[in-house]
Amino acid sequence: MQVREEVRLSDFTTLGVGGPARFFCTLDSEQDLKPALEIEQSRVLPILILGGGSNLLVADTGFSGIVIHMGMRGIAFDADRDDVIVSAKAGENWDSLVALCAEKNLAGIENLSGIPGYVGATPIQNVGAYGQEVGTTIESVRAWDRVENRIATLGKSDCEFGYRTSVFNSRHRDRYVILEVVYRLRSDGSPNLKYRDLADYFSSKKEKPSLENIRTAVLNIRRSKAMVIDPNNPDSRSAGSFFKNPIVSTSQLQKIRTISETDVPAFPAGDQHKVSAAWLIEQAGFSRGYVKGRAGISSKHSLAIINRGGASASEIVALAKEMHEGVKALFEIELEAEPVLVGF
Fold first, then answer.
1. Are 66 and 81 part of one and the same domain?
2. Of these four, 32, 54, 117, 313, which has the most CB atoms within 10 Å of its CB?
3. Cα(209)–Cα(125) distance, rounded to whole angstroms?
4. DSSP secondary structure string, 134-194?
5. For residue 342, is pLDDT > 80?
6. Residues 84, 210 within the same domain
7. pTM: predicted TM-score of the whole model, two decimal places
8. Hey, which residues are catalytic here?
9. Do residues 340 and 51 lie in contact, with contact meaning Cβ atoms separated by under 8 Å?
């Protein structure tokens, strides 16, 4: 394992901003993890586990600790009655895994096509889109427990999955280094068309879509919103959705309706309601294509803050703060950022 110094992190994030890491190493095997953590402990440094960098905003000053870039690869399939158990190492590309499972007609993650990043990141945020959440298919997570200094296996209930949350980004943030994720998928399972965009996409088609059809549809829909990474499309130079859809009470929802005097895109969330953050942002006056210096809002999706070219992390944060304050002033709703903020 090679340890490098002063490695520019902007090269490892989809936003393309951020200063250098004090130390940087790539983890190609589990055996490399222990010496990497020993560097952290001996120098009393903070640690950052880095995957695909798609949900990350690094400060202009960089990160003063050691960055461990996940490079472990490997996928295995095992039959279990009508299900298939899929085990994937943390450094596998997520969308490549989704494509492979759709090709094998394994249902459960096809609606999560086009989401950038690595497998190891998917349980942390309980990645979700188009009517699916990864937590519903995760059987277990294999991880290094930094408190007990051992390999631990966490079952589905141990992961405490919720809307964009898990034990990994809440109660035990920074405790675990995810090494492998195990998914239980349905062999020849039915497609999930509950999400409106997908239902509309297939409404004129008589045949039941295959999982590969679903994947193609999701990719087309995401591309139309510049939510698929494309080096030739500046609108895709983002960290994806910058804000979570807020969960509000019935009284809060009614207040939003009164203020806006129009229909509010809201969806049931238990006894509460999930409101579209994109709609709130647009109502607050931040239209698609809004520009603030070298940062801006995607012309295709108001939830994506983009690097228009040469933007600094401080410019991205300034725009995010302006959007946050605008929504708060109009609706008294506090938007919560989705990307992990590093070095701030």
1. no
2. 313
3. 28
4. GGGTEEEEEEEETTTTEEEEEEHHHH--BTTB-TTTTTTTTTEEEEEEEEEEEETPPP---
5. yes
6. yes
7. 0.85
8. 164, 241, 338
9. no
